Amino acid sequence: MKDRDEILAGAGVNTRLAHAGNDPADFHGFVNPPVVHASTVLFPDAATMENRQQKYTYGTRGTPTTDALCAAIDELEGSAGTIIVPSGLAAVTVPFLAFLSAGDHALIVDSVYHPTRHFCDTMLTRLGVTVEYYDPAAGAGIEALIRPNTRLVHTEAPGSNTFEMQDIAAIAAAAHRHGAVVTMDNTWATPLYFRPLDHGVDISIHAATKYPAGHSDILMGTVSANAEHWERLHEAQITLGTCGAPDDAYQVLRGLRTMGLRLERHQESALDVAGWLEGFEDVARVLHPALPSFPGHDLWKRDFTGASGIFSIVLDGGSPERFRAKAHAFLDALRIFGLGYSWGGFECLAVHVNLSDRRICKGPTEGPVLRLQIGLEDVKDIKADIERGLKAAREV
Ligand SMILES: *Cc1c(COP(=O)(O)O)cnc(C)c1O
Hints:
Aspartate Aminotransferase, domain 1, about 40% helix, 13 helices, binds pyridoxal-5'-phosphate, seven-stranded mixed sheet, alpha/beta, about 15% strand, five-stranded mixed sheet, Aspartate Aminotransferase, domain 2
């Protein structure tokens, strides 16, 4: 495909997912790129070695396999460059280390993924960065929190577990007026349903562990930068040595080929189940941004082109002493849903959410919060399973 870039430029998202990344013509026509296992790369002579004048120089700096994945992600994100790292968590910590220094102030959304908060409160704080959490509803009002030394504003929308939306464009504009870098953890939407860089974000972060890998068997993160921030991000990756493994990169590239179709199904089933759950008296609230009843729905509708398969429900819990027992009864009655962390795989998962880390944006108080990942199973079976859970919770 000589004019591959030209074909992909105007193509639909599933066409791009099918062809982005590697060019089969580069590898004798084989459809998929080879998995290159590499530390050492040989040079033809001493001069080339001294000048490093060849495309690949050492395994930590990229291989044809990792390049294929990075190129595919760039294509989807509209980014100038992408690094791959060993986990979604590293996709947060590496850019934070790239852009923050001792004496800086960082603004972190309070509905953030818990391990991000842990990194901020421990290592980042120890390294001399002042961390401050802000309300996901801040919008343009974030400007009031920006200090002369604010260097980074981290966003995540929808928020982890409770799915608060954020006005990303307004936050990015305010941050940029003061020279701060804007990062976004975009794992929930994937670049298919939201492209952060188009909305003013500088650095887009993904746990590729989730929908890109899609099968609950790979850990990987991607970090994509706009042109202004690419060099510094790439330099940090080289400095830290946090490179991604070739077999995992290959599997994530393989996962991308079907991600569009999988997401369509996740979206459809999750919306069906979420809407259905709103009809139960013992469900106090359904936290799903694509439901018109959700407080952040208008922002979701303005900015996002789709919804993925994870949301939460708040049970009507009666007295707080029974919240935990109700949550456990619900979870223990499930047969199709697995009890486990992470999401984005093909199967249904449920977890009792712990929101005790929140400082500004407190969690719901009506009852226990249960997060549901709606997998690719048949909706009637998923609903029957949830009914088992609700019945068990009711009996507590
Ligand atoms: C899962 C997740 C991560 C971390 O991904 P891992 O690969 O599990 O480390 C980061 N951010 C968000 C929003 C996530 O849901």
